[in-house]
Amino acid sequence: MYFFAYALSGEELDELLCRGWRKFGTYYFAPHCPGCARCVPVRIIAERFTPTKSQRRILRIAAAVEVRFSPLVFREEIFEVYREHSMSRFGKRSEMDEFINTFYTQSCPSLQSEYYIDGMLFATGFLDRSAEALSSVYFVFHSDYSHFSPGILSVIKETEYAMSQNLRYYYMGYYIEKNRSMSYKNRFHPYEWYSWNGEAWHPGVRSLPPGEDTA
Question: Closest Cα partner for 122 from 148, 91, 93?
Fold first, then answer.
């Protein structure tokens, strides 16, 4: 299921996020695979979030990292981080025009997070802001800075930012149990997961459900 939209309000975005929808630019989508519901939407309850012991250790390692939140503003140095990320992780070459169209075509209230060490940008997050939540669209980082665990660090910092803005939730996107790159998404507490079958959010436990086969 998908559609294209421009100029959605924060309230309209909330309705979509609450029903498991995601987006890139003007493209809004929700998985609809017959007999399968393994893409599980996950959100952190920001107002109650507390880092775990291992997450606090990451915060100590990254204590010198400066995080800035700002409106969506394209800069070439951000594209360079994205290009290195795409090549080092996926072996994919990136074009600047495609990057701008995907992440800087604003169709709802949006912003970006920027991560610096010694004045050097090494990671950027693209975020949407609904009436009640912050939603992670995509996050990229330069591979030279992997020792900071940037992916986990970004979730912590962006959830804390959501909390500081009096937002209730931080949406992490979809979780698939057998996808190792998504395994970190059930390690932030408290969280909730969305049931496509019941069309309702449920409290998370130590591990997420494997998926709800409808067959």
Answer: 148
Strand segments, DSSP code E, in 109-177 are: 110-117, 120-129, 133-141, 169-175
Is this structure's pTM higher than 0.90? yes
| Total domain count, the chain | 1
Q: Around 38, how many Cα atoms within 13 Å sit in the side-chain half-sphere?
A: 11
pLDDT digits (tens, 9 = 90+) for 198-207: 899 999 874 5
Query: Contact, 173 vs 23, CB < 8 A?
Result: no
Strands 40-45 and 110-117 turn out to be unpaired
User: According to the model, what pLDDT value does residue 211 have?
Assistant: 44
Residue with tokens 């086969």: 213
pLDDT tens digit sequence for 61-74? 999 999 999 999 99
Q: What distance in Å separates the CA atoms of residue 86 and residue 143, rounded to the nearest whole number? A: 10
Q: Residues 17-36: pLDDT tens digits? A: 999 999 999 999 998 877 77
pLDDT at 215 over 60: no
- Measure the CA–CA gap between 71 and 86, rounded to whole angstroms: 23
Question: What pLDDT score does 177 carry?
Answer: 79
Structure tokens at 175: 């979780």
- In this structure, is residue 210 part of a structural domain? no
Look at residue 136 and tell me if it is in a domain. yes
Please give the residue range of the domain that contains residue 184: 2-203
Q: Using the CB atoms, write b or e for 19-46: b if 16+ within 10 Å.
A: ebbbbebbebebbeeeeebbbbbbbbbb
